[in-house]
Structure formats: structure tokens, C-alpha cells
Automatic annotation (TrEMBL):
All copies of domain Deacetylase sirtuin-type, residue ranges: 1-253
Species of provenance: Fervidicoccus fontis
Annotated binding of Zn(2+), by residue: 127, 130, 152, 155
Highest taxon in the source lineage: Archaea
Annotated keywords: Metal-binding, NAD, Transcription, Transcription regulation, Transferase, Zinc
One Pfam family it belongs to: SIR2
Annotated protein name in UniProt: NAD-dependent protein deacylase
Single GO MF annotation: metal ion binding
PANTHER family: NAD-DEPENDENT PROTEIN DEACETYLASE (PTHR11085:SF11), NAD-DEPENDENT PROTEIN DEACYLASE SIRTUIN-5, MITOCHONDRIAL-RELATED (PTHR11085)
InterPro entries reported in the protein's UniProt record: DHS-like_NAD/FAD-binding_dom, NAD-dep_sirtuin_deacylases, Sirtuin, Sirtuin_cat_small_dom_sf, Ssirtuin_cat_dom
Amino acid sequence: MSAEEKLAKTLIDAGGKALFFTGAGASTESGVPDFRGPQGLWKRIPPEVFDIDLFYRDPEYSWRIYAEYVYSQISRASPNRAHIAIAELESLGLVEAVITQNIDKLHQKAGSKKVIELHGTYDKVQCLRCGFHGDIKDFIEDFIREKRVPRCPKCGRILKPAVVYFGEPLPSEELSSAFSLAKSSKLIIVVGSSLSVYPAALIPEIALDHGAKLFIINESPTHLDKDAELVVREKAGTFLEKVSNAVEEMMKSSKQKDESLQ
Ligand code: NAD
């Protein structure tokens, strides 16, 4: 049995209790660079630029980096074959949720309905004083033109992109629903994550501890490879498209078998 057939069969057998856990590698085929891959962002800028302390020390610099390296890339991106295949598998009733570390909204744009965003979303801003949330579009053009750091229209404090910076906690509701889904899942499929950013990376560990099968689709090694049923070193888009086709074939042939028995 090929790798894609093995995953397709395991997905069908999990009867809807399957989770996808995605990282930046799920979006590199959409032209959004990951952090730690060979073309990753860390090759061009240091991780410290996304520290919350730096944001408050030098908000203008931090907004400039965000506008240049994050917003401009992500706002141009479209879903790739990995996002599309995951959404198709969900529409067939095989995926309970997509838990993502990505902030790029590409799962939703591909049609996934149940997406848990652990690190926020690139297209919103938030005020850490009064809780205001708004569309980043209403603020970022002004910043790019006039270099004036966005301020909260309600209380005047500096606004921050609604993404989790290093040193900030993850959103508690999202984290706890991800943990509880992980505890009851039968299968978790990691796509494009180095599994090195915690607490997000706890999610596949929790699923494993509660008896789920683990599949990893990642171009480079992770510390959980040894625990996986299968590790696939192909591009996520290429592989997941094959999985989605294999699932459709298997479902079609089992329907035909059922019909011929009636
Ligand atoms: P990471 O950069 O640490 O790891 C990405 C992994 O994906 C690497 O191991 C790389 O080898 C692999 N990879 C790259 N392209 C691939 C492909 N086409 N197919 C299969 N594997 C591929 O990213 P991470 O684990 O998600 O780290 C978490 C952090 O990344 C989070 O803080 C997240 O918010 C952030 N992030 C998000 C985006 C985005 O929204 N698209 C972009 C960059 C970083």
C-alpha cells in the first residue's frame, strides 16, 4: 500500500475523529515563507523582531517589519493544494477540525469550516488596553503612507496586529478547545511544522498520549518522527492532493461494493 493509500485508509477508519495540525510549511507553496525552513524568514530577520517587548520598545520598527515581511506576503497569497485537499477531506466528513499555528487564513479561504487559530490572524488589529478589535486594512495603509503607528480609536493606545508575539500567551479558548479535541481524536496529521514552538506543539503530543495515530508530512525531521505511523518527506500540497484522490477512490469503490450487495 502506498503512503497516500495508508493515510487515506486511516482517515476513513477514524470516522471523522481526525485532526490536522498545520504550521508554516503548509503555506510555503502559497508563497508565504516559513520561519525555520531553508528559505525561512529567520534567514532574513532575527526572531527577536516578533518579541512583545520589542513591540512596546519600538512600535514603529515592529509595525514596519510586520507590514513588510508578514502582511504584504500573506495578503497576496492564495490557498494551495494542501489547503484545498484538507478542505475537501473535511467536506467528506473525515476531519473534525484544523488546528493551525498559521495566521494567514488560507485554510478558511480554501473552504475549511472548523479552524482553530492558535496564533491569531494577520488581518485584524487589537488594543491590549480596552479590547478593541478592528480590520487591519483600516489602519495599515495609513501606516505604510505616513509611518504613523496605528492607535486605538476608542482609548488612544498603540494598536497591535492581532497575532501572538513571542512572550505573549496563546488565546485561552482556542488552546483549550485544541487540547480537548486532541484528547478525543483517533488520528492527528501534522503538516509543515517543525513542532518546535510551544505550547502549540503540545497538541500532537497530547493526541499521541491519548491513543491517537500520528502521521507527519514535513520536509525536515521533527522530534516526533519516531512516534509516527508514517513520516512523509514530500511537499504537503503534492502529497495531500494524492491523499484526497485516494480517499475519493476508496469511498467510491466501497459504495459500489455496497450497491452490488443490495
Ligand atoms: P517552522 O518554520 O518552524 O516549520 C515549518 C516546517 O515546514 C519546516 O520543518 C519545513 O521543513 C517544513 N516545510 C516547509 N515547506 C513545506 C512543504 N511545502 N511541505 C512540507 N513541509 C514543509 O513553522 P511552524 O512549525 O509553523 O512554527 C510555528 C510558527 O510559525 C508559529 O509561530 C506561526 O505563527 C508561524 N508562522 C506562520 C506563518 C503563516 O501564517 N503562513 C508563516 C511563518 C511563520
